[in-house]
Amino acid sequence: MTMTHPGLPDYWGVFIIGFMLLSSLWLIARPSPKHIHSSVLSLVNIPFIGSGIRRLVSSRWVLLSLKIFMVALFLLIIIAGLFGTPIAERNIATLLTWNLWWSGLVFSVFFLGSAWCAVCPWDAIAQWLVRRKLWFRAEPNNSLNIKVPRQLANVWPALFMFIALTWLELGVGITTSPYATAAVSLLMVVLATASLAIFQRKAFCRYFCPVGRTVGFYSQLAPIELRPIDNDTCSRCKTLDCYHGNTDIEPCPTWLVMGRLTQNSYCTSCGNCTQSCPHQNIAWRFRPPSAEALHSGRPHWDESWFMIGLLALTGFHGLTMMPFWESWMSQLAQFIGDSGRLLPSFTIGLIACLITIAVIYSFFIEITRRISKTDMEYKRLFASFAFVSLPLAFAYHMAHNLNHLIRESVGMAAVFSNPLGIDTVPLSMMEKHERHMTMWMSQDVLFAIQTGLMIFGFWIAIQVIRYRGRNLIDAGSVNGKPGAGVVKLLPMLVFAVAMTGFHLWLLMQPMIMRM
Asked: b/e map of 440-461 (b: 16 or more CB within 10 Å)?
C-alpha cells in the first residue's frame, strides 16, 4: 500500500489564485519606478551584538569546528551506507541524506544564503587531502594548478551533473538504497578532490558542483549577503587580500574580489576574505531578498539556462511523486517496448520535461521580443528575464520540500540511536501511518507556510518582470502614459502565472511518501 501526503486544500488554492490575479492587475496598472532603492544593514553595525559579529566572522576556529562536525556526520553516512542495513527507512545514510539534508538544504539558503558551502564535507575532505592542511595556507599547494579550459569555465557542467543527480535520485532510486547513497556521496568527494588536485583554486565549487551552484543561484534571493562594511575602504585597498589571500589564508576559491562583488552566485561563504582582510572590512549584512533578481544580477547565457533548468527540475521532482506518475510511465513503457525497470521511460519523461519548460520559456521570450520590437539581442533578453524563473523555482522547491521535511523526518531520533539499523526490520504499515500522522507542526500551519511561499515566489517574479522590463515599458510609453509599454510585459506575466499555476496544481495533489 502506497502512503501519500494530502495536498493543499482548495481554499488555500483559491487564496493563491486571488493573490495572483490582484498582483497581475497591479503590475498592469502601476508604472515601473525610475529608480530602485535598496537599503542594507550590516550586522556589525547592530548595537550590542556588532562587535561580537565582527569577531565571529574573522575567527577561523568557528568554521573549522563546523567543518569537522559535518565531516564526522558525512563519514557516519558512508559507514552506515556501506555496512549498515539495506532497509532505507532504518538506515541513517538514507534518512539523513534525503529526508533531512536534501529536503532542508533549500531552507538553509533562504535564511543563511550560501553558508552550506562554507561547511561542505566534500570540499573539506578534498582540501585536507590535497592541501594537507587543516586550515592554514599550503605552499606549495600540491595542485597542478592548470587553468580551467574555456569549454568548462561555465555552469554547464553543474547543470548536466544536476540532471544526472536527478536521474539517479528519481530514476535509479538511490534514495531507497543506503549503499547507492554512500557510493554517490563518495563519488562527489572524488570529483572535488580530483578537481582541486588538477585545476587552479576550487574549480569544482565554481563550475562543476550541482549542489553548490543550486545553492549559489538560490542565494541570490536570500535576505543576507557577505559584503564590505565600507565600500570606500575597499576602493582604496591596494593589496586585495580578499582575492589573493595572505601568508596564512588561502585566496578566494572562486576568484572573487569583495569590493566588486554584486551577486551571491559564486560566493561560498568560506570565510577566507573575512579572515585575510587587513582592515576587517567584510561582514554579513541584511538586504531585501529580491535585490539581485531585480537589478544587480547580471546572468550570462549559461547561468540563465541553469535557472531555467532549476525551474524544470523542481517541477519534475513534484511530478514524479504524484500517484499518477507510475501509470504514465507504464503506458509509455508499453508504447516504446520498455520491459525493464522503466528507466528508459523515466529518462524520456525527464528529457521531455526539460525540453518543454525550455521551449515554453523561449516561446514567451520571443513573443516579448516581437511585441516590444526591441533592439535588444535575443540572448540578452533571454538571460535578463531568466530571473523570473528563479523565485518561481525557489518558492515551489521550498513548498515541496517542506512536506518531506515535516512529514518524513519523524523518527530520526530512533535512527540516530541505531544508525546502522542493526537487527531491524522494515517499517510496518502501522509505523508508517504513525510517522505519517506525527508531524513537527500542525497540518494547518504547514499549509499556511506553503501558501506563503507560493505567494512570495509569485510576488518576487512580478517584481522582476516589472523592474527588468522597465526599458521595454519606457520605449513603448505614449504621451507619458505607461499603459502601452506595460502591454509588452504581458507575455512574461502569462509565463509567471502559468508556472505558478502548474506548481499550485502539483501542491494540491496527494504526494507519495519518499520512504
From this structure: eeeeeebbeebbebbbbbbbbb
- Domain-by-domain residue ranges, the chain? 42-222, 223-292
Which among 190, 196, 220 is positioned nearest to 141, based on CA atoms? 196
Closest CA to 77 of 212, 179, 187, 209: 179
- For 380-405, how does the pLDDT look when each residue is reduced to its tens digit (9 = 90+)? 899 989 999 999 999 999 999 998 88
Instruction: Count CA atoms within 13 Å of residue 250 on its CB side.
Output: 23
The dihedral of CA 176, 177, 181, 184: what is its sign?
negative
Check: pTM over 0.85? Answer yes or no: yes
Residues 293, 390 contacting (CB under 8 angstroms):
yes
Q: What type of residue sits at position 356?
A: T
Residue 167 CA to residue 364 CA, distance in Å, equals: 28
For residues 56 and 43, is the Cβ–Cβ distance under 8 A? Answer: no
Enumerate the H helices of 269-342 as residue ranges.
Answer: 272-276, 291, 301-320, 325-336
**What CA–CA distance (Å, rounded) separates 39 from 224?**
12
> Which band of pLDDT confidence, cut at 50, 70 and 90, is reported for residue 471?
low
Pairing mode of beta strands 282-286, 4-5 = unpaired
- Rounded to whole angstroms, the Cα distance separating 128 from 277 reads 23
Q: Is residue 158 classed exposed, middle or buried when 0-12, 13-18 and 19+ CB atoms within 10 A define those classes?
A: buried
User: In whole angstroms, what is the distance from residue 319 CA to residue 324 CA?
Assistant: 9
Residue 81 clears pLDDT 90, i.e. is over it: yes
- The answer to whether 348 touches 342, Cβ cutoff 8 Å, is no
- Give 428-456 as a 3 state SS string: CHHHHHHHHHCCCCCHHHHHHHHHHHHHH
pLDDT-based confidence at 31, cuts 50/70/90?
Answer: low
Nearest to 489 by CA among 384, 364, 379: 364
The whole-angstrom separation of Cα 117 and Cα 124 is 10
